[in-house]
Amino acid sequence: MSLGGLILAGGASSRMGSAKALLDWGGETVVDSLAGKLLAYCAPVAVVVGHDAAAIRKHMRRAGEVMMVVNPHPEQGQLSSLQCGLRALLDRGVEGVLFLPVDYPAVKMETVGRLASAFLTQPPAALVIPRHEGRRGHPVVCGKDILEELLALAPQGQAREALRPHYPSARYCDVVDAGILRDVDVPADYEELRQAARGQ
Description:
Layout: E1 3-9, E2 24-25, E3 28-29, H1 30-39, E4 45-49, H2 53-59, E5 67-70, H3 78-90, E6 96-101, H4 109-120, E7 127-132, E8 135-136, E9 140-143, H5 144-152, H6 160-163, E10 171-174, H7 187-198
Parallel strand pairs: 1-4, 1-6, 4-5, 7-10
Antiparallel strand pairs: 2-3, 6-9, 7-8, 7-9
Helix pairs in contact: 1-4
């Protein structure tokens, strides 16, 4: 089975004040850091851009290692970016997709590896969700049936509309990784998370 990776970086980052994808994370941009983690276990990896697309392309060191997908209507919301990325990956013949919003820079590489392994374990799982101290987080892995359900949603909707009915039968992966729960929306979130990462 083939597992594609997808990073959602199409948002305007209006509350952050600058593109989240280009914030520094351990000496590289957030989007480059996340791309490296996904590339270790997923192929191909797509990055969906929308707002700030030109700047992200210009400053992303790993742009040549991933599929750059442009969401022409990022104002429709994150699901529209997810759908753009899913179409691009399904065209490449993947049987599952691990997707992660760029808002979650602290997700550990080993978490990505555990999720990929859990998805590929026989029998394959339709949905794999990481869990830390009993709480669901990101990224998640979806098989083809759920990917089709996500594509069938209105672009202005939310992914959880398709995912929620599958929660009872999902394969949960318990991880020691608070990064699956920690998103960054404003500068204070980013600074707090970066300081916590330095202290590890």
